[in-house]
Amino acid sequence: MNSYIESTSFFGNVSAEELATKYGTPLYVYNERILRNSMRTVSKLIQGYRYVANYSMKANSNLSILKIVNEEGLNADAMSEGEIRLLMKAGFSTDRIFFVPNNVSSQEMQFAIDNGILVSLDSLDQLERYGNLDRGGRCAIRINPGVGAGHHSKVVTAGKNTKFAISRDDIDEALEIAARHELTIVGINQHVGSLFMDPEPFLQAVSNLLSVAQRFGRLEFIDFGGGYGVPYHKLDNEQSFDFENFEVKFKALVDEFVSTVGYTPLFKTEPGRYVCCEGGVLLGRVHATKDNAGRKYAGTDIGMNVLARPAIYDAWHDIEVIRNSEIITDGDLEKVTLVGNICETGDIIADDRLLPKIKTEDLVCVLDAGAYGYSMSSNYNCRLRPAEVLITENGDDKLIRRRENYDDLFSSFEL
After folding, report:
1. Is 343 a catalytic site residue?
2. Which SS3 state, helix, strand or coil, does residue 363 take?
3. Catalytic residue, candidates 139, 343, 365, 382
4. CB atoms within 10 A of CB 189
5. Of 19, 135, 57, 53, which is closest to residue 387 (Cα–Cα)?
6. What is the value of pTM for the model shown?
């Protein structure tokens, strides 16, 4: 069995056991070198034109990671006032923040307007609301390109069955609303979905969006969205997303558009998962094993409150087993269902998975946990959220978010 942890020297100068002993489990661990490499990959996706990658911070909103994103020169997307505030705290100037919400209140819109942050509107109602707040202002609109993609129906954000974006059939009405409020639509954006490994649906959406762009006159920017996948089955040698071939096809579409319209807007993308997924893992401790009706279970402290993706999307995460600081890559394998400590039948990390034989007190390392891990965590069952640690480029460990305590859990109650 391969080991991602070993092949990447993920934990730097420390071992998984040392980290677990020092910070407790469950524990999110991020590798700065891997994070920065992913950021640099997406920052050069479109060559030969003005281009910027906007980090979609909903994937991972840790302040230290946002500061790294800022250092690497990426801009950022925000989906809420809270995300805007975090980005500002991380040092992003407001002209590098793009507010791309859906179904938000006038108060949230006004916060963005007051701070000089460009807003994208994803429905006619939201465009009307914005026009009432910022007559004569500048905005963007989110377009449904008619094509969706993603690893699960719940993460497909374009096409026929989605709550997101303005239909291409409604563009004329959107232009009428904008004209009535003297709004200037300076850009259009889209997002087809998350975690696609086949680029063809995305490229079709790019083609569709570029066609739509010609209905708006001279735009300042066109934002193609993100969603590029990462190999969650990497221990089975799943191949990484083929950026080299993707870039060639992507650029050909952009070249054709620029040649047709005779001007060159700023081009943007919105990577989130790709930036931080492979740069994060989740460590947990095995506290019990049992056999139920011939099925083996290994009970850990990684509940669905800590990692929600398997429960929500039936998402796959590769698992490595660590015993006495050694990663078990050989020996007997057996089928085991890895579960957490939440009172829900669906609290399953890995279902009937072939893994090295697991013993109580082993560590399990959940791979590809850097995206939509901590950011989707909760206090369900009154469990505390875990700590987050960064392995710096020099291999040292640095606490970047402390573990919650019970005072945190009770702090918002009014008694």
Report:
1. yes
2. strand
3. 343
4. 24
5. 19
6. 0.93
